[in-house]
Amino acid sequence: MKKSVLVIALAFGVSGAFAQDLTSKKGEPILPEAEDWAISFDATPVFQFVGNAFNGNTGNAAPSVNFLNSNQTIIGKKFIDEKSAYRVLVRLGFNNQTFKNLVNDDANTSAVVFPATAPQVEDKFSKKNTNIGIGVGKEFRRGKTRLQGYYGADAMIWISMSGTKYKYGNVITAVPTAAGQTATPTSTTWDATTGTALSVAANGNRTLSTKSGMTFGIGVRGFIGAEYFIFPKISIGAEYGWGIGYQMSGKGKSKSETTQVVSGTNTYGTPETVTAGSSKFGFDTDINQSNMFNFHGSNTAGAATLRATFHF
Q1: Is residue 296 situated within a structural domain?
Q2: Mean pLDDT value across residues 181-200
């Protein structure tokens, strides 16, 4: 509590030095003007750093610059005039990663004499993710002093999808015809999230690929907030939102390879499993834009985001 009071007092103490004069000592305008651009980021780390500076501890971490939400959405504005602005929300994310691991070659039947090492083959795991979010809105402002209120609405659409692929150096053989061939080849088991090779062991049922259904969403969000200009065109503010949104996800697929006895014969196959799609609809308060992009529908936490905004 003492830390919060101290931080707030510091912020208002600095701004109080300028009183309510809307230009700086150098004649710079305090408030945004027509044709100005602006970008916002999470101000919480800055205030934590300022508070920690007075707690008597050494080694406090320096402040970091964070996105306003966990989904890494960039939020910017362009001012039409000093009382209104267009808002843009953008996330364009494409990620393709490949991981490799060496395992013993099952086809090798030669004796390995020290210091030689056993021949190896390569297992490979790759994953890709796509996240696209685009939003536009309009903001209206009120106030003639450093304290400015604002309100407006955003409209948003978002698309996401993901998939994985697996390749193995040792093949599965339903009916071995040569030494080293097996229905349970030495294979890598992967952590699909981190790409870490969890284990290497005989495995007769291996995943070949997975594909999520494409997720598509659309939403409209009203917002209201306030900000205080502590320096020329630099403000600290908070924002609440309330929106409505719909999201649907298509069917997903997973393909594996294995052997199974069919009519008395061991047979190789690549069965495919289909997962059902889903849909979500919500009308709720949110903390910030991430609740619409990530669509936490049932989130009722009404805490506002603390944001720093730079105008230029």
Answers
A1: yes
A2: 94
pTM of whole model > 0.90? no
Does 300 score more than 60 pLDDT? no
Q: Is the CB of residue 311 less than 8 Å from the CB of residue 85? A: no
Residue 205 sits in which domain range?
A: 69-229+238-304
CA distances from 305 to 44, 81, 205, 207 (A): 9, 25, 48, 42
Helix pair angle (2-16, 44-52), 10° resolution: 100
CA distance 254 to 163: 9
124: closest CA among 76, 195, 224? 195
Domain assignment present for 204: yes
Query: Is 188 part of a structural domain of the chain?
Result: yes
Q: How large is the average pLDDT for residues 118-134?
A: 94
3-state secondary structure 30-93: CCCCCCCEEEEEECHHHHHHHHHCCCCCCCCCCCCCECCCCCCCEEEEEEEECCEEEEEEEEEE
Residue 257 within a domain: yes
Round to whole Å and give the CA distance between 275 and 208.
16
> Per residue in 38-94, pLDDT tens?
998 876 666 555 556 566 565 555 555 554 554 556 789 999 999 999 999 888 889
**Domains: count for the chain:** 1
| Helix H or strand E encompassing 107 | none
Of 149, 163, 54, which Cα lies nearest the Cα of 98?
163
Mean pLDDT of 210-237: 92
